[in-house]
Amino acid sequence: MASSDQKENEDRKKLLFHICCAACLSYVHKIINPEKYEIMGYFYNPQVHGRTEYNKRLSDVRKYCDENKIDLTVPEYQIQEFFDPIMPYQDKNSIKYIKDKKRWRTKRCQLCHSQVLGKTADEAKKMKANMFSTTMLTSPYKDHDEIWNIGLEIEREKKIPFFYTDFRKGYWYGRNYARNHSMLIPTYCGCSYSAEEAILE
Ligand code: SF4
Hints:
By secondary structure, this protein is α/β, with parallel strands linked by helices. Helices cover 51% and strands 9% of the residues. The protein has a single domain, classed as Rossmann fold, CATH 3.40.50.620. Helix 2 (22-31) packs across helix 7. The protein is globular and about 60 Å long. Bound molecules: iron/sulfur cluster.
């Protein structure tokens, strides 16, 4: 006969989070109810520019997951998975070329979010998780409606629920957590374009 602890564990939903950095993860992990959800992590970030930045984000996430007993999956870092979908929109010889800077940025971020969430959903299905989501929902700089819509599109296409919660009020909690634990506080979203934009803005 199953014990009550076993029963509770069986009732918990498995929730795979795409993790962008330890700062955002720290808040998501703090507020997700562990009696209802078992959080698992997926560090899939081909968009992150620069090995040093990528490695630092990853080592902080590994440390956090080790200390908090979160299962973490880390696929190979392949930056072309970020560039392949976006390049036709930057190529002047392509019919998809977008000249306008604002429109290009919007398109680029949509494709980037689709890539990251799509792969997270695939991985969630592979590991028989009940839902997928992303710690990017902690950022006040992200377009939440857009992420939500992309998440729902992927939910319909891949037949696995997208878990949406507005985690934005924990943005500063995450930054403080990272500072107090000597972890990286990212200064740009991830890609080389965002690194340049962060300097200019
Ligand atoms: S700014 Fe952020 S969301 Fe947009 S393409 Fe770059 S890494 Fe992706």
